[in-house]
Automatic annotation (TrEMBL):
A cellular component annotation (GO) from this entry: plasma membrane
Protein name: diguanylate cyclase
Organism of provenance: Engelhardtia mirabilis
Alphabetized PROSITE patterns for the sequence: GGDEF, RESPONSE_REGULATORY
Source species taxonomy: Bacteria, Pseudomonadati, Planctomycetota, Planctomycetia, Planctomycetia incertae sedis
Keyword entries, A-Z: Phosphoprotein
């Protein structure tokens, strides 16, 4: 499909047609495309099977018929149209199709599905799919029973309440999508129920249809002002009631779809924020040691330097280098070298003050920025790091030994021009440690500021 140039969305939908495990990753519009393919597959299977359609396929067809009924589409007519189109394409593609057309014509889909029809008098009432949670409210048991019967015949999940207060309690518990309520009831009537529901966040989403035996215009207006979505007079005609409900259910479904889309957009926004944060962290973090990288260290140093200059406070840096690291790589391999870097980074991080920042500058070189630290504090920190690294035994494969670091320390003092100057001073002290035998801490001399 990619070679044909079809959009990625179409490719994702087709891949999910056979594998339902990825459906949660599809957005609302992609799910609709997937449903079209599923429905088309059901119709295609029936066109092939005809009279031989098994109960499972007939049940799928029955569910499809219910969904199409809500959209005023007749399944049998749709199947006939599909077969007619297929015969036309068969002629173009030189494929035999007449047998299939005859199988569909002789199968009589309506007769095959008749066992699933629910009859009300001489009228067939098609269930909605999927069912909607409807709360029927009426203080008259006889009227309530009739209302419930019509709603259940339409395929709804029906719950009942005998007055407004009971309806509120049921609503809080079951969260109905639609409420059909009588207007005139004792102990919280239909108008009061509407107003009470509309005051809550969930109640504002419910589709409310009021029933009344009084068609007075003022009463109707009062009902709409109270929050009712529709109004129907009693005794009602069942077909009219169900038609009104279908219109309301379309609004409910649309609102639910909007909410789902908003939820998806919110999740996407959260994921995007998280991804951006992860990307930012990755851009500022050394992959191997998980320490800040040079880029992050220099940005942090700029801020720390400015604060020190503005507040006239001390700032020091510590430069470290792992001794004989090249020999470790040459003798034991880069895998061992990576472990040495990771272990040294771990010990380094654990040996610092809370406000210090350690970073890997490249290779086996590290830098520690010590805000607010005079030379004695920074030197003490450097010695603590050196000692901890020396005492730590690194074990990996046939490598089992400790490593050491050479360290240089420098503090800002008048005459130091900028950050790079201070780092060069610390590097110079580090190289002095190397020349003096390694595994030691050297303080940058005042003369090195020149």
């Amino acid at each position: 499909m990619a070679d044909w140039g079809l959009p990625e969305r179409f490719q994702d939908v087709v891949m999910n047609l056979e594998d339902e495990t990825g459906e949660d990753l599809l957005d609302e519009s992609s799910m609709q495309l997937l449903q079209v393919l599923v429905d088309g597959s059901i119709i295609a299977n029936y066109c092939v099977a005809g009279r031989q359609a098994d109960p499972a396929l007939l049940e799928q067809l029955n569910l499809l018929r219910r969904r199409l009924y809500a959209c005023d589409i007749d399944l049998a007519e749709l199947c006939d149209e599909v077969v007619a189109d297929w015969v036309e394409w068969g002629a173009v593609l030189k494929l035999p199709t007449e047998d299939m057309a005859e199988r569909v014509r002789s199968a009589n889909l309506e007769q095959q599905l008749s066992g699933n029809k629910q009859l009300s008098g001489n009228r067939v009432v098609e269930p909605f799919e999927p069912p909607v949670r409807v709360l029927a409210v009426d203080d008259d048991p006889l009227s309530l029973r009739g209302l419930v019967r019509h709603l259940k015949e339409a395929g709804h999940e029906v719950h009942t309440a005998r007055n407004g207060r009971e309806a509120l309690a049921v609503t809080l518990k079951l969260r109905p999508q639609v409420i059909v309520t009588d207007l005139n009831m004792p102990d919280l009537n239909g108008l009061d129920l509407c107003m009470a529901l509309r005051r809550s966040r969930f109640g504002k989403r419910i589709y409310i249809l009021l029933l009344t035996g009084d068609s007075n215009e003022e009463l109707v207006l009062e009902g709409f002002e109270a929050g009712a979505d529709d109004f129907i007079t009693k005794p009602f005609i069942p077909r009219v009631l169900l038609a009104r409900l279908r219109a309301g259910i379309r609004l409910v479904r649309l609102q639910e779809q909007v909410e789902r889309d908003q939820e998806i957009h919110m999740k996407n926004a959260i994921q995007m924020t998280r991804l951006n944060r992860q990307l930012k962290e990755a851009a500022n973090t050394d992959f191997l040691t998980k320490l800040p990288n040079r880029r992050c260290a220099m940005a942090h140093f700029e801020r720390t330097w400015k604060h020190a200059m503005d507040t006239d406070t001390s700032i020091s840096v510590v430069a470290l280098d792992i001794d004989h690291f090249k020999r470790v790589n040459d003798d034991y391999g880069h895998d061992v070298g990576d472990v040495v870097l990771q272990e040294t980074s771990r010990v380094l991080r654990q040996s610092l003050r809370r406000q210090d920042l350690a970073a890997r500058m490249g290779g086996e070189e590290f830098l520690v920025i010590c805000p607010g630290a005079a030379i004695d504090v920074a030197t003490h920190t450097a010695e603590r790091v050196r000692s901890a690294v020396e005492e730590n035994v690194v074990e990996f494969g046939r490598f089992r030994r400790n490593v050491t670091v050479s360290v240089g320390v420098a503090e800002y003092e008048p005459g130091i021009l900028d950050i790079e100057h201070l780092i060069r001073m610390a590097d110079g002290a580090l190289y002095s440690s190397k020349e003096l035998g390694r595994n030691r801490v050297t303080i940058a001399s005042h003369s090195s500021t020149d």
